[in-house]
C-alpha cells in the first residue's frame, strides 16, 4: 500500500515527491508509527530513498521521496526487483531484464544524488540542511561506507551490512556500522565506529555468483554527504539521518536531474587529490593538501571532524578546493601566534578575498541562494534581508544576487 501511494505521488520527470510521514499515514488511514515502519521496509528493500530536509532554523520540512526502478538502473545495481506474484487468472507480466551498469552510470548517479542533497547548502556550522537517510540506496551511492559497500577495518576487507546513528531509546549516537568480513576467517562485527574504517585503495569487482547489495557493486568507489554527502552530502540536524538501523537491501534507484553541480564532499576535480588519497588518515590528507605541520593538521582535523557526515576525505578535498582548508589552517595559526599590539601593521586580520555567502558558508556565486530565491517563502525573505544588510556595497559583495529579479525588485522598492 505504501509503495503504491508513493508511486501515485511521484512526478514523471524525476520520480520523486515531497511529503511527511504523517501525510502517508493520513492517506492510508494508518498510525504514523506504522507508516514509518513501512517506509523503513521500503528503504531496506531498495525501493525508495529518502532525502531529509530542514528549514534554516533547523525545523524539519517535508522529506523528498525518490522511487528506484529501470529509469536509474535500479539504483546503480542493474538488478531488477522481485516480480510481484499475481493471481493465476491474471495475464503474466513481461519479465524485467537486468540493466548493464557502467562506471560512468554510477558516477552520474552519484553526481545527481549529491546535487539533490546540496539543494539548500549548509547551516553556518557546516552541517548540511539536506541529508540522505542512513541505509537508503542514495546514501550508499554517495557515501563510501554506506550499506553494501566494501571498507577496510583493522586491515581486513569487510562489507557494511547495516548502519545506524540511533541508540537505545532513540538517543543520537556516533554513526556505527555492522560488518561482515570477506576474508577466509569471515565473521561479523557490530557497533564499529565509522572513524575506525578506511576506504579500499582499489575498486573491488563484484562476484557474479554472489547476491549483490546495491552498493556492494560499487565498493569503495564512491564517497559522498551528504549528505549528504553532504554532504553531500548529505542532513536533518536532529535526528540526523532519520533513525533506525537499516538492514541491507537488494536494489534501489534514483531519478534524473538536469543540471550538474559538484558535491560538497565529492572527490573529483581536485588537482592535489588526483592521485587518489583513499585509505590515508585525514591528518595525512590535510598535510598532503596544505603546508600544515603534524600538530596543525591534528588540530585542524579535530576542528573539521564534527562536520563530517559522509566521507572525511571528500570533505577535506572540497574545502581545499574552495580555499576553506587554508583559511581554517590560518585561523589555527593566528590563535597560536602571539597577539600583536592593536593599531600596528601586524594587527590586521587576514580575511577571505572575493565574494562569499554568509548564510550557506559558501563562496559566491552561491547556488543555494539562487534556489531559495526562485522557490520563494521564508528562505527567500532571509536572503533578501541578508542582501539589504550589506548596505551600499551589496552589489559588490554579492554580484551573483544583484541581478536576480527578486533582488532588483527589492532594491527598486527601497
Structure description:
This protein is an alpha+beta fold and 414 residues long. 33% of the residues lie in helices and 13% in strands. It has 15 helices and 11 strands. It has helices at residues 2-9, 21-28, 32-44, 73-76, 103-117, 137-142, 282-289, 294-304, 312-322, 324-336, 367-375, 378-389, 394-397, 399-402, 405-413; strands at 16-19, 48-53, 63-67, 130-132, 150-153, 156-166, 172-181, 188-193, 197-198, 356-357, 362-363. A 5-stranded antiparallel beta sheet has the order 8-7-6-5-9, with no helix packed on it. Strand 6 (156-166) and strand 7 form a beta hairpin. The longest helix is centred in the N-terminal third of the chain and has 15 residues, at 103-117. It is globular, with a radius of gyration of 23 Å.
Indicate the percent of residues in helices.
25-40%
Assign an overall shape: globular
pLDDT below 50 for ≥5 consecutive residues: which ranges? 203-278, 341-353
Largest sheet: 5 strands, antiparallel
Q: Give the strand tally.
A: 11
Q: Ends: how far apart?
A: 53 Å
% residues in beta strands: 5-15%
The order of strands across the largest sheet is 8-7-6-5-9
Provide mean pLDDT, rounded. 74
**What structural class do helix, strand and pairing data support?**
alpha+beta
Write out key terms for the chains shown.
single chain; 414 residues; alpha+beta; five-stranded antiparallel sheet; four-stranded antiparallel sheet; globular
